[in-house]
Amino acid sequence: MEVILRNLFDKGQVITYRSKTEIKNKARDLEKGRDIGTQNAAWEIEIDQRILEIEDGEKAHIIYRSTPVSIPMEAQMIGVLNKKQIIYVLMDTRGIILEASGIGFQGIVNFPDGALKEGDTWQDSTDVELPGLPQPVRQMRTFTLQGFETHGTYQCAKISVASEEANLDIIAPDRVNTIKYSIKTTGEILFAHKEGFLVKSMINSSFTSNFQSTVMEGHNLFTQELIEVKAKVPA
What we know:
This protein has one helix at 73-76; strands spanning 2-3, 14-29, 34-55, 59-70, 85-92, 97-100, 116-117, 121-128, 137-151, 154-163, 166-171, 178-192, 197-211, 214-230. The radius of gyration is 19 Å and the shape is globular. The longest helix is centred in the N-terminal third of the chain and has 4 residues, at 73-76. Strand 8 and strand 9 form a beta hairpin. By secondary structure, it is an all-beta fold. The strands form 2 sheets. Strands 2, 3, 4, 5, 6, 8, 9, 10, 11, 12, 13 and 14 form a 12-stranded antiparallel beta sheet that branches. Strands 1-7 form a two-stranded antiparallel sheet. It is built from 1 helix and 14 strands.
């Protein structure tokens, strides 16, 4: 079976997702040989994806409206905002973001030009914003069409994703030393190929950072799942 994977845009359509992020960080002092701190947090957000306008049948002006569901204090302490946010995106049917007022789209796939069959792979390069990192990181991602499965009422393309290790050097607060980060990502995405939208994504990112004798290890699990599709909701 071969499919051409594309986002299918419908002006006025609103798709609602529920996202959950869980982070677990641990710091260790190598000189003293002991753990010196941990950081755990989890939060949930509801996301409305509204199609405002469509250009030439190939590009869509989209508003993403994020509404906090559960943002505990430990999440707010690492910079998670406990308020509604709106991000504007201009995206084409392949999932390529042409314009955006923000970043952090972990579950979006950039599809290749032609038809795909089970086992086919393709790559993209994108900036990803991860909790616990001081700035976005550019990742080279490899996608693989693993096959097809039914999720709820949708026949989905099952896509795996794995990134190459990305490295990031940040000037330390003392403005003398450097903090070195290494980041990798793996995950799975379910895409309703007939309807042309995301059904579910699970993205697991891990990083290590080194600063003097301190090493920090972090894990970030991001899950996003479809809740509801509304066609042509009035603006």
